[in-house]
Amino acid sequence: MFGLKIIVMALVGTSLLVPAASASPLPPRTQPQLTVKLLNANGSGCRRSATTKPPVDALVLPSGAVTVRYRGFSVSGNDYKSCVLFVSVAAPAGWTYLIPSVANQATVTLDGAATATLSTAMWFTGIEWTVIGTRKVAGPRTGTWNTSVVPHQAAWAPCGTSVNLSIAETMRVAGGSASTAGLVATTFGSPKWRRC
After folding, report:
1. 61-86 burial by CB neighbour count: b if 16+ within 10 A, else e?
2. Keyword set for this entry (predicted)?
C-alpha cells in the first residue's frame, strides 16, 4: 500500500448542486450514504512516481456515482498495461447495494491495422466476479473511446457488513508503436439500494 488516502462520500439520490434561490426548503435525505475509500492502486498503468501526483484520484459526481481518474495510464502498440484498484466500501446498517455498471473513458490513436482492447473486472472480496467484460475498437480511429460493462446478474453486496471492492482494468494495443491508447477514467454508476 503506498498510502493513498482518498475518502469520498457518494450521496445517492441527492444533488450536490443547490439552486441559489429556492421557493421551499429541500426535503430531508431519504436514501442512505455509501462511504468509499480508495485504499490502494497497483499495476503498470497506475505506477506511483515520487516526483508526480498520485497515479489515481477519486471524485463524486452530482448523481452520486464515483469516478476514478488516472494519470499516465497509456500504452503503445504491441504492449499492455493494467491497474487494480482496492476500495473499501461501507453501507449503513440494514442496507445492501449493487453497482449497476462500470463505465470507462479512454483515448485512442490507432492506424488502420491497429486495435485497442480494454478488459474490466470488478468483484467484492470473497465473491465471484460481479462485473467482467472486454471491449475492442479497431483503427483507423483517433479520439475518445467510451465503454460500459454491466453485471450479467444482480450481485448485491453482503448485508450488514463492510466489504472491499476490487476493480481491474487492462488496456492492450495491437499494432505499430505509433498506435496508442490511454485510460482516462473509470466511473461506477450510482448504487441501487434495498433493505436487508
Report:
1. eebbbbbbbbebbbbbbeebbbbbbb
2. Signal
State the Cα angle at 147 between 142 and 150, rounded to 5°: 175
How many angstroms from the chain centroid is the CA of residue 42?
14
Q: What is the pLDDT of residues 42-82, one digit of tens each?
A: 999 987 664 455 667 766 566 667 888 898 899 999 999 99
Would you state the pLDDT for residue 189?
A: 84
Cβ pair 190, 64 in contact under 8 A: yes
Q: Distance (Å, rounded) from C-alpha 29 to C-alpha 51?
A: 42
DSSP 121-176: EEEETTS--SEEEEEEEESSEEEEEEEEE--SS--PPPTTS-EEEEEEEEEEEES-
pLDDT higher for 18 or 156?
Answer: 156
Give the Cα separation of 40 and 142 in Å (integer): 31
> What whole-number distance in Å separates Cα of residue 68 and Cα of residue 28?
29
- 102: CB partners within 8 A, 6+ apart: 120, 122, 131, 148, 149, 150, 167, 186, 187, 188, 189
170-190 pLDDT, tens digit each: 999 999 999 999 999 999 888
Q: Residues 80, 57, 66, CA angle at the centre, nearest 5°?
A: 100
Could you tell me if 191 and 98 are in contact, meaning their C-beta atoms sit under 8 angstroms apart? yes
